[in-house]
Write a structure and sequence with these properties.
This is DUF5030 domain-containing protein. It comes from Bacteroides thetaiotaomicron. The chain has 281 residues and is of the alpha+beta class. It is built from 5 helices and 16 strands. The protein has helices at 2-7, 77-91, 171-174, 180-188, 227-240, and strands spanning 19-21, 29-32, 48-55, 63-71, 98-99, 105-111, 114-116, 119-122, 125-131, 134-141, 199-208, 214-220, 251-253, 258-259, 261-269, 273-278. The chain starts with a helix and ends with a strand.
Length: 281
């Protein structure tokens, strides 16, 4: 996690995977963990990517449709168009697109993925059982954990740090971090003392271990800070270590592993205290 940040990785891994829409009645897109669902009986051009959608017809189960094909390389759009026409000729086409009747098996989709310093992460993973393009079953995999200080929550005045009540079907909106509870926690315990420091900023890595304990690590700046800034930063990291267990959860990566970290930009002002922003913004 630290090496990803230091290298400031910006690998657009999302371009290497097919996009799927409407995986949970949400307009937000997801991506398939599988590299491609395109048929193997037709030779396809290199660097071809596709967009898919689950569509419903009256009285029928959801059907997987191919909506769009494009090339990830410039100047190759004509090859993609020719290939799509060949698929339509072989498998048919209607107003919804090309039905993926060639495909049977399981597919796994990451809902609303985010590229976080080269790691593709999500909160929600769905697994579909497909038979000749038709969705036989769908299950949401409970792999990632949700922390109690993440995302929007319904008001619970009697419980200060209560579990999140999801307000929509897509993790992207649930992770529109303002980190207001974390700000309240660290600023409420901030030692008040006179300081000449007016403003400065640091980047912090929050890591949640298997027992739910969160630890903070300083990522930047690399240069030596003055004593006041250093004392304030150490105090911030110390407060993070006092967070209730599972204040922050985990994410899942596209390769199936768990991502236990969170990158946070922390800006200090003598007027407002700490203001925090998650890099998932």
């Amino acid at each position: 996690m630290i090496s990803n940040y230091k290298e400031q990785k910006a690998i657009d891994t999302l371009k290497n995977h097919d996009i799927i829409y409407n995986i949970e009645e949400s307009p937000e897109a997801g991506i398939f963990m599988e590299q491609s669902l395109l048929p193997s009986d037709l030779q396809r051009p290199k660097d071809i990517r596709a967009e898919w959608c689950f569509e419903y017809s009256s009285g029928q189960k959801a059907m997987l449709y191919l909506k769009k094909i494009y090339s990830s390389k410039e100047g190759k759009s004509n090859e993609a168009s020719i290939y799509k026409n060949k698929l339509a000729e072989k498998y048919g086409k209607d107003d919804l697109g090309i039905p993926a009747i060639w495909y049977s098996g399981k597919i796994t989709a990451l809902s609303c993925p985010k590229d976080l310093f080269g790691e593709i992460v999500t909160k929600n993973v769905a697994e579909f059982d497909i038979e000749k393009g038709q969705v036989i079953s769908r299950n949401f995999l409970d792999i990632a954990k949700t922390g109690t200080m993440e995302g929007p929550r319904r008001s619970r005045p009697t419980i200060k740090y209560s579990p999140i009540a999801s307000t929509d079907g897509c993790w992207y909106t649930n992770l529109q971090y303002k980190l207001d509870l974390l700000e309240e926690f660290v600023n409420g315990n901030l030692k008040k003392h006179k300081t000449s420091t007016t403003k400065f900023g640091v980047d912090i890595l929050l890591v949640t271990n298997k027992k739910g304990k969160t630890t903070g690590y300083l990522l930047s700046p690399n240069e030596i800070m003055n004593k006041e800034n250093q004392a304030l930063t150490e105090q911030l990291i110390k407060q993070i270590s006092k967070l209730p267990r599972w204040s922050f959860g985990w994410l899942q990566t596209i390769n199936g592993s768990i991502f236990q970290g969170r990158y946070v930009k922390a800006n200090y002002s003598s007027d407002t205290g700490w203001k925090l922003e998650d890099y998932l913004h």
